[in-house]
UniProtKB/TrEMBL annotation:
InterPro entries: Beta-barrel_TonB, Beta-barrel_TonB_sf, Carb-bd-like_fold, Plug_dom, Plug_dom_sf, TonB-dep_rcpt-like, TonB_rcpt_CS. GO terms for molecular function: carbohydrate binding; siderophore uptake transmembrane transporter activity. It is found in: Cell outer membrane. Belongs to the TonB-dependent receptor family. It comes from Mucilaginibacter pineti. The keyword Calcium does not apply. Its main location: membrane. Keywords: Cell outer membrane, Ion transport, Iron, Iron transport, Membrane, Signal, TonB box, Transmembrane, Transmembrane beta strand, Transport. This is Iron complex outermembrane recepter protein. It is a multi-pass membrane protein. Residues 114-222 form the TonB-dependent receptor plug domain.
Length: 795
């Protein structure tokens, strides 16, 4: 029997040696409070996971051996434990207050927390890196709820756009380290001015609806809060290269010192992106750099960021006429010379934007922290275009007589310049007198100086004008001040939230006065934006919330410069109700959010011409957005998970009135409607990602996106719409390491796998000709099946 037992034991030894064990546990602070979202890193092999809502974690399918576990959480000191694993173990961590101020504190004042009564999504650096093949930042956010992205060039490089809950970039508040990124006048966020920004981003939070108080323009659909490079304790060097369809090429070099002397870090990045674009003559040539240095003390953090983006893009923002899309979807017929055959090769947009940020976080006492930032942005550049047989009188040029013939028109090349400065400061005091009470006082003061001037570079006919003849100039100034106070108090399982913001804007611009003289004008606004909410913690894994918020938003530059005081639109007002439920466990994360956004005086295009002949946004008295958003992620097996979102909504404007130019009468016809759909607001948006890890370091993801029908205007007319589309893509990735290279990553992304024919954006114009309405629709077709391949090396 002894011999039999010995033989059986010998046979089972290999099986026992390969037994799959686990390490699980719970993360708390020294007061015993759980720390959901804490990061736990394990070595041999290296991996990390995030603690669930109960602070629990689990590493499964481990072999016997020695492991090192490290638990870390914002504001706490990391703890490392070494484990000799011979059987499944429970390992708990208790984290004490951190000895250093962390980078995450610098954006905490403008972010929603895990118990905030707000609909939000957090994206980590790791999640962003998965899709960062060179496409613009909006494309990295495409799988978040209620999001639709667009590309002028059709392949995601060049001018891109993002709409969240049907609201475009001018209604989306974007901050970079808490500093406003939206253009002060147009209010849009132009990510093309920061090519490859994602390679220097640590994390992003997207808040849908009004959200919490932040700096800059009001959030009328959403806010995007971006945090750039944070501390990395070890030095690194990374090379990331991508190549793909339509001549797309991305090269990125990143370097970092790690923590030097326990106090300092230095990081840098240099990038370039090139693409021919899917649309004809839609090339992009983009360059950028990012430099950051930080000092970490026990109670002080100082970080200085200097970065820049330079773009040269050929025009693609005019779209493709409707009658051409079916036969030649890449056609770009604008920019023709007078012979109707030759294209003007320098029909380009050229712009450079330089940024400087100085951020400081100071721990004043154990209960009081101060965050402050100084910032300066310098932007300059021009758009050059060829104009056919244009009237000289438009440019203040006297008609010329040559050989007895008087020329009142000529072909010409003009440059439209923008030279602007944006600077200011932001601040926030965070006071936590008790564990169940948190109070924040913050705000900002920013100034904008923008010079808009236009030059003639060349004329077909001799006009005796000097080189770079300046025919117009508009100097604008905008001051933006805000102050907010927010507090949340925890009472057992209930957390109450209150937030109040005051914002004042002063805007000076060249515009029409009451007598239609074009002289310097000004406008002022004062907004009060209250918010309140309640969150109930049902158990360690779930909570429910309800909130109400008010947002106000001023008109954009064109609404002022192209109108008189008697016809200028009013500011918009939004009352936003949000209610939801969140659940989080080790294998399942799920959220459902209902919203009702009630607009007063929302600004939309109606086609109406104002008293100076300009098309500006008009106020519609009553409109709303109401819907339900779902997002979730379920880990079906340790190697396989499914993440999905779905947004169902009604987006309506009541008693809409459309104005149409009548070429027969020289006036405008008025068409009255009942309740119609808001433009570019699909009733359903959904996404899905099926992710499979067949072996260590390998990943296969099948990614899907569905966007319902969208109307190009607010009339709900079926002849002026974007058809629904369903796009599927595949992402493959494999990473490994050698003795010399810490990480080698090989990736392949095939976009629009089944070559769906669709347009994600467009516009329309109508008039009446010979008693008949004629529609002029244009679309932005997106690329059929295309690919991007990447190779990354980490040292």
């Amino acid at each position: 029997m002894k011999n039999v037992f010995a033989a059986i034991t010998a046979l089972l030894l290999p099986v026992l040696a390969s037994a799959q064990l686990s390490i699980s546990g719970k993360i708390t602070n020294t007061s015993g409070e759980v720390l959901p979202g804490a990061t736990i890193t394990i070595t041999n092999p290296s991996a990390n996971i995030v603690a669930d809502a109960a602070g629990k974690f689990s590493f499964n399918d481990l072999k016997p051996g020695n492991y090192s576990l490290k638990a870390s959480y914002i504001g706490y000191q990391p703890v490392t434990k070494n484990i000799n694993l011979t059987a499944s173990q429970t390992v708990n961590f208790s984290l004490g207050n951190g000895v250093m101020v962390t980078d995450e504190v610098t954006v905490s004042a403008t972010r929603a927390g895990k118990k905030s009564p707000t609909a939000f999504t957090n994206l980590s650096k790791k999640e962003l890196e998965k899709n960062n093949y060179g496409q613009d930042l909006p494309y990295l956010l495409n799988q978040t709820p209620s999001t639709v992205v667009t590309s002028d060039a059709g392949a995601g490089v060049g001018y891109t756009g993002i709409r969240i809950r049907g609201s475009d970039g001018t209604r989306t508040n974007v901050t970079l380290n808490g500093i406003p990124l939206n253009d002060a006048e147009s209010q849009g966020a132009y990510f093309i001015d920061l090519p490859d920004l994602a390679s220097s981003v640590d994390n992003i939070q997207i808040q849908r609806g009004v959200g919490t108080s932040t700096n800059g323009a009001g959030a009328f659909g959403a806010s995007i809060n971006i945090q750039t490079t944070t501390r990395r304790d070890t030095g690194y060097a990374e090379l990331n290269n991508s190549v793909g369809s339509y001549g797309t090429l991305k090269n990125t070099v990143s370097l970092g010192s790690g923590l030097v002397g326990g106090k300092f870090t230095f990081d840098g990045r240099l990038s370039r992106i090139k693409s021919d674009g899917y649309i004809d003559r839609a090339k992009s040539d983009l360059k950028s750099y990012f430099l950051s240095g930080a000092y970490y003390g026990k109670n002080t953090l100082i970080r200085v960021n200097v970065f820049s983006g330079q773009e040269k893009t050929y025009q693609a923002w005019n779209g493709v006429p409707e009658d051409t899309v079916a036969v030649h979807p890449t056609y770009n017929g604008l920019g023709l010379e007078s012979d109707g055959k030759t294209y003007y090769n320098n029909q380009t947009d050229n712009y450079t934007q330089n940024y400087a940020q100085a951020l400081i976080t100071q721990k004043v006492t154990d209960n009081l922290t101060f965050n402050g930032a100084l910032h300066y942005t310098k932007g300059f550049g021009y758009y050059e275009e060829y104009k056919n047989t244009d009237s000289l009188s438009h440019y203040g040029v006297t008609p010329v007589t040559i050989g007895g013939t008087t020329f009142a028109t000529t072909d010409l090349v003009r440059r439209l310049w923008l030279n602007n400065d944006f600077y200011g400061l932001t601040y926030a005091f965070n006071y936590t007198p008790k564990q169940n009470l948190n109070f924040t006082l913050g705000g900002a003061y920013n100034e904008y100086r923008g010079a808009h001037y236009n030059n003639i570079e060349w004329t077909q006919q001799s006009t005796n004008i000097p080189p770079d003849y300046e025919y117009s100039r508009d100097n604008a100034r905008k001051n933006d001040f805000n102050i907010f106070a927010k507090a949340d108090i925890k009472m057992n399982d209930v957390t109450l939230f209150a937030d109040m913001q005051y914002r004042h804007i002063y805007y000076s611009f060249l515009g029409y006065d009451r007598n239609r003289n074009n002289v310097q004008q000004n406008a002022s606004f004062s907004f009060y934006n209250p918010k309140a909410g309640i969150t109930y913690q049902l158990n360690d894994q779930s909570n429910a919330y309800l909130s109400f918020a008010v947002g106000n938003h001023e008109p954009s530059r064109d609404d002022f410069t192209q109108s008189t005081p008697g016809s200028r639109p009013k500011a918009e007002n939004l009352k936003d109700w949000e209610a939801g439920y969140r659940y989080s466990s080790a294998g399942v994360n799920f959220g459902i959010n209902g919203f009702f956004m009630d607009y007063n005086n929302q600004l939309v295009l109606t086609g109406q011409i104002n008293d100076v002949g300009g098309f500006i946004h008009s106020n519609v008295k009553d409109s709303y957005r109401a819907g339900v958003e779902l997002d979730g992620k379920v880990r079906i097996t340790p190697q396989f998970y499914w993440a999905a979102t779905a947004s169902l909504s009604r987006n309506k404007v009541k008693n809409f009135v459309e104005f149409i130019d009548n070429t027969d009468t020289g006036g405008q016809d008025e068409v009255k409607y009942g309740t119609t759909n808001l433009a570019f607001s699909p009733s359903f948006v959904g996404s899905s990602e099926l992710n499979f890890v067949p072996l260590k370091g390998a990943e296969i993801a099948f990614i899907s996106k569905y966007v319902g029908k969208q109307y190009l205007d607010n009339t709900s007319n079926e002849t002026r719409k974007l058809n629904a589309f369903f796009v599927n893509s595949v992402r493959l990735h494999y990473s490994f390491k050698t003795n010399v290279i810490k990480n080698i990553g090989i990736g392949l992304q095939v976009n629009n796998l089944f070559s769906e024919k669709y347009s994600s954006n467009g516009y329309t114009y109508s008039d009446i000709e010979g008693g008949t309405r004629v529609n002029y629709n244009a679309y932005f077709p997106q690329a059929p099946r295309n690919f991007m391949a990447s190779l990354s090396l980490g040292f």
